Amino acid sequence: MDGMILTHVIGWGLGIVLFFAALVLYNEKKSKQATIPHMILRLDYLVILYTGFVLLWRYFDASGSSFTVQAIIKGVAGLLVIVCMEMILVKMKKEKSAKAWWIIFFIALVITLLLGFGILPMGFLPA
Ligand code: HEM
Fold first, then answer.
1. How many domains does the structure of the chain reveal?
2. What pTM does this model have?
3. Which domain holds residue 82?
4. Is residue 124 domain-resident?
5. What is the number of the ligand 1 atom nearest to the C-alpha of 121?
6. Is the CB of residue 124 below 6 angstroms from any atom belonging to ligand 1?
7. Is residue 96 part of a domain?
8. pLDDT truncated to tens, each residue of the chain (127 aa)?
9. Of 25, 26, 54, 65, which one's alpha carbon is 20 to 30 angstroms from that of 18?
């Protein structure tokens, strides 16, 4: 496993922890405290995006890859996961329903993890 994959995995691993921390605090109406994990999460989005796009770029090299389409779908699903996390937290903060975003979140997360771990070849789990 190389450093870019490792950084990507640390990025989204940390992201999920921060997301749940902010979620719990917003849920307890501790909006002020929730801002801390929420802001760190927003910085972490940049790590996930940067490493994700660098990894994606590898599937566009001259030699051609048989996984380019899967990698693009993985990128779109990953992007959707980030959009959903942000939308869910903003809805929670405003005390509005985030139900639709939760549904998209779980679908996108399953697709992201299946493609990332199961199908794309550079993962650290045996495909
Ligand atoms: C929260 C959002 C995201 C999650 C949970 C996630 C999850 C993962 C996982 C589980 C892997 C496989 C790592 C491994 O097995 O070593 C991976 C790899 C990858 N991700 Fe993400 N990712 C996210 C966002 C993104 C974004 C936004 C992009 C692109 C724009 C992206 C592009 C990629 C690419 C190209 C790979 C390389 C797969 C390979 O070559 O095996 N990811 N990601």
1. 1
2. 0.91
3. 3-119
4. no
5. 41
6. yes
7. yes
8. 688 999 999 999 999 999 999 999 999 999 999 999 999 999 999 999 999 999 999 888 766 678 888 899 999 999 999 999 999 999 999 999 999 999 999 999 999 999 988 887 776 665 4
9. 54
